[in-house]
Amino acid sequence: MKSLLTLISVFWCTLSWSQYTNVRQVPNPKSSNTINKYVANPDNIISRRDQNSINGKLTELEANYSFEVAIVALTSIGNNVIEDFAVDLFADWKIGNANTDNGLLVLFVQDQRLIRFETGDGTSTVLPDTKCYEIQQQYMIPYFRSTQYSEGILAGVQGIVDVLNGKTIDDTAMDSYGVENEEYYKEYDEQERIRKSKRNKNWLIGLSVWHAVGLILFLLVLIITRFKSDPYAKYNLVKWFSLWIWAILFPITHIFVILLAKKLKTRYRDMIRFSSENGEIMHKLTEQEEDKFLSKGQLTEELVRSIDYDVWVTEKSEDILILAYKKLFSGYTKCPSCKFKTYKKSYDRTIVSPTYSSSGRGERKYECANCGHSKITGYRIAKLVRSSNTSSSRSSWSSSSSGGYSGGSSWGGGSSSGGGATSGW
Length: 425
Ligand SMILES: [Zn+2]
Fold this sequence. Notes:
By secondary structure, the protein is of the alpha+beta class. It has helices at 2-15, 48-65, 82-93, 121-124, 129-145, 149-164, 171-176, 181-227, 231-238, 245-249, 254-270, 287-290, 296-303; strands at 39-40, 68-74, 103-109, 114-120, 282-284, 307-314, 320-326, 343-352, 360-368, 374-381, 416-424. Strand 2, helix 3 (82-93) and strand 3 (103-109) form a beta-alpha-beta unit. The chain starts with a helix and ends with a strand. The model is unreliable at 170-179 and 390-407 (pLDDT under 50). Zinc ion binds next to loops. The site of zinc ion has 9 residues, from loops.
């Protein structure tokens, strides 16, 4: 068994040797010991020379204008959607300054043939989505089309640095690729539309799989039920599928599952039984008839509706079978004194109200409907808190000042705005 597991894990590792399916797997350049603090290039897509060049440009950019740019080049992110992956990676690394959100993530994914720019709020004002797309189309895609990935990324970084330095993109260069502005936007919209429909499709597939899993689970239980001979055991298996919570978890299919489970529950509860002692047929007593077979505690449970009992007897009452059907969420718990399910909170009240300067006190009473056992417990009510209107919660984890190059061992603490652009080739 152990060797099989090892074999599977070795096989799995071989399969996924250069797949980064989770953002945590991407090596963070800030926490490595290399000089390259801006480039994650674990698959060596970018040449060493270009990597050094990019690093130099981005160091200078951050020193002069405080923009924090991360370049990530990966061969594969598995089946992840590049936009989602970029957002997650951005959030995980916290690129850009916490206060100004001047971060930018450039994510290159080779097997999906996609390049993604993810911008922070502060960056997107200087580098709006259309500008991102323009840089990708003008500087990067032409190189990527001829598999010059390293050159394309370097050219893109140059474009980004130029824009963030306040230079305008050279329009003649754009024309040389034979693409007009208007066409960029048209293509941008078209690509965006395709990506959206792809995402919707993924979502639909996920939903179908999820519902199928729920149905298979139910079918499995139905099959197991077939092999159980005791109707009480059958009942206790299917009862879990009659809960309305399934309708929330599996909104489409489970209305039918719940209705079927409810029907089966009734069937199993009334199913004919034979005595395990003498094999004689048994019959179920009515609510009135059964009372003399039940104890006082059981009668109280029936009264408060925490447990319903069925009593089955043989012809001459030689064998008596008492079956308990517990109601889920009845509000009653087991009494610590008489052990019947007849114990419940009877009240919960405030004795001393809390103020802004001191905490308050409350009292809670539990009482048993069967034996009368009761318990009063006291509890503390937390001090009142004035709600504050300051919205600086985001910066709490970081103390770096806005502007200025930190060059430290982590990114600045920014978050992405959801803005940016993606291009394919
Ligand atoms: Zn009690």
